[in-house]
């Protein structure tokens, strides 16, 4: 077990020996063994927790190393620290949600997802640590991709100009800050939530409202709101490329 945080091995408050018994009857043998050993009345609980932590640490290290390839400023010591933090937090999450395990997959696969999620979140936050969040679009040109025809290029230019005007004139300062940072400048939503002292859900709601305003503004100018550029510009990039947090549970 790492020295980065102390894991409480006492039974979870909501965990009861009979909880989830019906669903556990259909678990595969290995998964049932994990659940039983991690249960509050198991004499082998501490040993099982140590084994689970080792498994989570292995997964966290793999994911941290994979993601850190995009962030050269995160070196060996940073990566090791992030991996241990991720494994520690993933362990607490697994123990806290043990009754939620339904056996739709093997227990180790289910638990592994917590380590992957924690590692991804922590790498993003560490990579943005000390960086200023950009509040202006870094590049409008990158939104239009491919090899457009002159007509398509003109249409895209008109659309982006209208979008800039709508962002400036139709959004509140807070909506503009959240929308530009998360959607146009690729600031991870969890990093933005931490900086703004907000929840991910609240930020997604703000982005949803901002999208509605922008689409209405473009429609009022009779511009193609169904255009790929408009869709790409008004949809959070992170929401498209990363799995939902709900999939972890």
Distance between the termini: 23 Å
Give the number of helices: 11
Largest sheet descriptor: none
Strand share of the residues? under 5%
N to C succession of SSEs? HHHHHHHHHHH
Give the proportion of residues in helices. Answer: 55-70%
CATH topology annotation of the largest domain: Rna Polymerase Sigma Factor, Chain: A
What structural class should be given to the helix and strand makeup?
A: mainly alpha
Q: What integer value in Å does the Rg equal?
A: 23 Å
Task: Name the average pLDDT.
Answer: 76
Number of domains: 2
Write up this protein.
This protein has 2 domains: 21-131, Rna Polymerase Sigma Factor, Chain: A (Orthogonal Bundle), CATH 1.10.1740; 141-245, Winged helix-like DNA-binding domain superfamily/Winged helix DNA-binding domain (Arc Repressor Mutant, subunit A). The radius of gyration is 23 Å and the shape is elongated. The protein is built from 11 helices and no strands. The protein is 62% helix and 0% strand. The protein starts with 20 loop residues before the first helix and ends in an 8-residue tail after the last helix. With 249 residues, the protein is mainly α. Mean pLDDT is 76; it is low at 8-19, 225-234 and 239-249.
